[in-house]
């Protein structure tokens, strides 16, 4: 079966838009080649918003909002009948994703749930635009409805964006990726006049240290298999995602630089699915530097999940959060194959 037709803006227009945004231009190589990307204009921003109220105050503030650079707005909502984090992109034409790992207690057990909140127009390359979402999407923080009387928890995640799936993914990240950490605590929701809620969201954006890779359809995947991003003070971050039913290389690696590169090491963990923390969080410590390849890794990307990675060089540890979602082995419909990886420093 042939690849479904794509509605392209054209590579030239995409490059012009990237330059106007001042966020760097992907460099495209020959089929299967490595593309190296460097940001032209750095965006660095930290924000913190808090929703906190109790009792029968006349002017309760149930919602706080913050801008997400280059993407739109994130809302933090705590009402007795609605507890959620919500993303509102400026446009639903691109593919916008909010990934988060939620940690809380359920039935007396420590549990985790990986969530992917998406806003988009085109679900696949062949979509006519009717298969998309609304202009916003959310992830609820309550476990039951009506909302339970007491609940607490925490989460971390990231918000990223790439062209819609009707277009090429574009290779390395061009739009800023924003990481976040979230905490929530509410109690006495069953007792009006005595209710209490506190939610805090910390957001961090740093385009000089983000990296990733996105391609849509096997044709683009064959041209854009690998993305290499140079990160100040660290070296290169390398993401590889091969398409094809026989492909077995979907990995992330680091090539540290400097006098202390030989003593560098990598800690990492996978967070996938939903259930007990012990069953769904896998942690690996002290993967050392390979003197032959010069790499930390490569280590496998999750097929549909998240990672945290800690790169240690000369006693300095840098923490990353990464989301990964890929389908690479649909030979019957190569147009639905896709790989979307985003990574950025944690707050």
From TrEMBL:
Descriptive protein name: Uncharacterized protein
């Amino acid at each position: 079966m042939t690849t479904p037709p794509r509605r392209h803006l054209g590579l030239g227009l995409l490059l012009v838009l990237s330059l106007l945004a001042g966020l760097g231009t992907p460099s495209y190589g020959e089929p299967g080649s490595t593309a190296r990307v460097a940001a032209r204009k750095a965006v660095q921003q930290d924000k913190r918003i808090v929703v906190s109220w109790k009792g029968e105050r006349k002017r309760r503030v149930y919602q706080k909002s913050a801008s997400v650079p280059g993407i739109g707005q994130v809302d933090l909502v705590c009402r007795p009948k609605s507890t959620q984090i919500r993303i509102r992109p400026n446009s639903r034409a691109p593919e916008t994703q909010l990934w988060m790992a939620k940690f809380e207690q359920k039935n007396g057990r420590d549990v985790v749930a990986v969530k992917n909140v998406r806003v988009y127009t085109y679900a696949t390359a062949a979509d006519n635009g009717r298969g998309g979402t609304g202009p916003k999407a959310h992830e609820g923080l309550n476990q039951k409805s009506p909302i339970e009387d007491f609940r607490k928890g925490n989460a971390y995640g990231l918000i990223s964006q790439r062209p819609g799936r009707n277009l090429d993914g574009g290779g390395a990240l061009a739009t800023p990726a924003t990481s976040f950490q979230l905490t929530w605590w509410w109690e006495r929701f069953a007792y009006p006049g005595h209710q209490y809620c506190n939610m805090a969201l910390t957001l961090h954006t740093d385009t000089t240290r983000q990296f990733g890779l996105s391609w849509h359809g096997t044709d683009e995947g064959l041209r854009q298999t690998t993305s290499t991003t140079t990160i100040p003070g660290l070296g290169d971050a390398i993401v590889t995602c091969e398409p094809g039913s026989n492909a077995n290389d979907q990995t992330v690696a680091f090539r540290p630089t400097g006098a202390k590169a030989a003593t560098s090491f990598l800690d990492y963990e996978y967070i996938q699915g939903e259930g007990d923390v012990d069953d769904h969080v896998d942690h690996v410590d002290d993967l050392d530097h390979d003197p032959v390849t010069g790499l930390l890794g490569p280590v496998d990307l999750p097929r549909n999940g998240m990672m945290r990675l800690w790169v240690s060089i000369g006693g300095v540890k840098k923490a990353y959060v990464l989301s990964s979602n890929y389908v690479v082995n649909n030979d019957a419909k190569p147009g639905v194959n896709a790989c979307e990886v985003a990574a950025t420093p944690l707050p």
